[in-house]
Amino acid sequence: MTALRIECIQGDITQQPDVDAVVNAANGLLMPGGGVAGAIHRVAGPGLARECQPLAPIQPGQAVITGAHNLPNRHVIHCLGPVYGQDEPSAQLLADCFRQALRLADNQGLASVAFPAISTGVFGYPVREAAAVALAAVRESSASLRSVRLVRFVLFSDEDRQQFQRALEEGGVD
Ligand code: ADP
């Protein structure tokens, strides 16, 4: 069995043409909004919101999968992260997002998934803590993945990339 490769890059989640699925830091109604959701819906086009509508609402920690429409990927996986200090237990709900997204990708036979830093924007999760939760959740999932071989974290700022890179290195070499 090939090991899961995990990488952390600075970039835009809507511009990852070499991955099968990108993850949306969605809102509960799966509507276009600000941040990641705004960018994803803008590039995907209005067909994505139409496909999302019957799947909404979703709860914190939950993930659903759709087509990618005009994005250069096969699927979008929409996760609702916890609002920090409000949706509790925050760490468990955030970990659930990563676990559920990977399970959905694996069930579809996908090989690669790109995640943004879910909950660290308007939902207020401190990046350092979110990075530790995200990396631990991905590592924990890796044993049960059959098709997913690459997980890429795409961070908007170099500072955030460094936090995720640190969390990756602290957990051991991949
Ligand atoms: P949430 O509502 O889950 O907090 P946001 O979309 O507000 O999600 O932000 C999550 C993180 O994604 C933030 O760190 C933000 O800077 C970053 N971000 C915003 N737009 C993009 C993008 N196009 N690609 C990658 N990361 C992005």
Describe the structure.
The protein has 174 residues and is an alpha/beta fold. It has one domain: Leucine Aminopeptidase, subunit E, domain 1. The protein contains 5 helices and 6 strands. It has helices spanning 35-44, 46-52, 90-107, 127-142, 158-170, and strands spanning 5-10, 21-25, 63-67, 75-79, 112-115, 150-155. The chain has a 6-stranded mixed β-sheet with strand order 1-6-5-2-4-3, sandwiched between helices. A hairpin with a 7-residue loop joins strand 3 and strand 4 (75-79). The chain is globular. The mean pLDDT is 96. The protein binds adenosine-5'-diphosphate (ADP). Residues 12-14, 25, 35-37, 39, 81, 116-123, 154, 156, 160 line the site of adenosine-5'-diphosphate.
**Major sheet summary line:** 6 strands, mixed
Number of helices: 5
CATH architecture: 3-Layer(aba) Sandwich
Which CATH class is shown? Alpha Beta
Unreliable stretches (pLDDT < 50, length at least 5) are none
- Total discrete domains: 1
- Which shape, going by the Cα principal axes? globular
Question: Which strand-content bin applies to the residues?
Answer: 15-25%
In CATH, what is the homologous superfamily? Leucine Aminopeptidase, subunit E, domain 1
Ligand set: adenosine-5'-diphosphate
Helix content: 25-40%
| Rg, alpha carbons | 14 Å
Characteristic terms for this protein:
alpha/beta; Leucine Aminopeptidase, subunit E, domain 1; 174 residues; single chain
In short:
The chain is an alpha/beta fold. Helix content is 37%, strand content 18%.
Task: Compile the SSE list and pairings.
Elements: E1 5-10, E2 21-25, H1 35-44, H2 46-52, E3 63-67, E4 75-79, H3 90-107, E5 112-115, H4 127-142, E6 150-155, H5 158-170
Helix pairs in contact: 3-4, 4-5
